[in-house]
Write a structure and sequence with these properties.
This protein is 80% helix and 0% strand. It has one domain (2-218). By secondary structure, it is mostly helical. Helix 3 (41-63) runs antiparallel to helix 8 (173-182) and helix 8 packs antiparallel against helix 9. It contains nine helices and no strands. The relative contact order is 0.15.
C-alpha cells in the first residue's frame, strides 16, 4: 500500500494535476478568512468549506491519473487487487488534505486577529477533516471508475457538492456550517462536530464501496 501511495504521489506531482485544486483552496481561503476577527468557529468553517471544494476536485484528479491501459498494468503489478489501487488513491488524497489542513488552521490566525486556544484548533481540525472526507467521497464516486464520460462526472460532482452545501440542516456539511456560524464557543461545538465527522467517515466508506462494486463489475 505504501508503494502504491508513493506511486500515486509521484504521478500527480509529475502531471501537476494538483495545482488547480490547491490554487483554488488558497484563493478561497484568502477571500473568506483574510482580516477576520472575533470568534474562530466561523473562520474555521470557511477553511473547511474551501477544503471541501478542493478535496473533491483533487480526488477526481487523482482517480483519473491513469488511463484504462495503465490502470490495468498497475492492477496486475499490485497483485490483481483493484481495491488496493482505489484505497491508495484515497490515502493519497487524505494525506494531501492533511497537509492543507495545517495551512487552513494557521492562515486565518496569521491574517486575522483572534484569541486562539487548543480547543479552537481541535475544532478547526475536526471541521476540516469532516469536509475533506465528504469531498474525497464525492470525488471517488464521480471518478472515471464510475463515469466514463467526464461531462457526466462533472455534473454529478456539482450536484453532490451543491446537495451537501445548501439544503438546510443536511448532515454533515451544511449542518456543520450552521453550527459553527451560530455558536461562538468552540468547546460546545466539539461533540456535535465529532458526530458530523463520524457521519462523514460513513459517507466515505459507502461511496468507496459503491465505486469498487461498479469498477469490479466493469473490469
Amino acid at each position: 500500500m505504501i508503494a502504491l501511495i508513493r506511486y500515486t504521489f509521484a504521478t500527480v506531482l509529475h502531471t501537476q494535476r494538483y495545482l488547480a485544486p490547491v490554487l483554488l483552496f488558497m484563493g478561497l481561503l484568502g477571500v473568506l478568512t483574510v482580516n477576520g476577527g472575533g470568534p474562530l468557529p466561523p473562520a474555521y468553517a470557511s477553511s473547511a468549506g474551501a477544503l471541501f471544494v478542493c478535496s473533491t476536485w483533487l480526488t477526481i484528479a487523482l482517480m483519473s491519473l491513469d488511463d484504462p491501459t495503465q490502470r490495468a498494468i498497475v492492477v496486475v503489478s499490485s497483485g490483481g487487487r483493484s481495491l488496493k489501487i482505489l484505497l491508495a488513491a484515497i490515502g493519497t488524497a487524505l494525506l494531501s488534505c492533511m497537509v492543507l489542513m495545517v495551512f487552513g488552521l494557521v492562515f486565518p490566525l496569521w491574517m486575522g486577529s483572534y484569541d486562539v486556544t487548543a480547543v479552537d484548533l481541535l475544532l478547526g481540525l475536526e471541521a476540516q477533516l469532516t469536509c475533506a472526507l465528504v469531498g474525497i467521497a464525492i470525488g471517488v464516486l464521480c471518478s472515471r471508475l464510475v463515469f466514463k464520460r467526464q461531462g457526466y462526472a462533472l455534473v454529478a460532482a456539482l450536484a453532490l457538492v451543491m446537495g451537501a452545501l445548501f439544503p438546510k440542516g443536511m448532515p454533515p456539511v451544511n449542518r456543520l456550517f450552521n453550527l459553527m456560524a451560530t455558536t461562538s464557543d468552540s468547546a460546545k461545538l466539539l461533540a456535535p462536530t465529532g458526530g458530523m465527522l463520524a457521519i462523514a467517515a460513513v459517507v466515505l466508506a459507502v461511496f468507496t464501496a459503491v465505486t469498487q462494486f461498479v469498477a469490479a463489475r466493469r473490469e
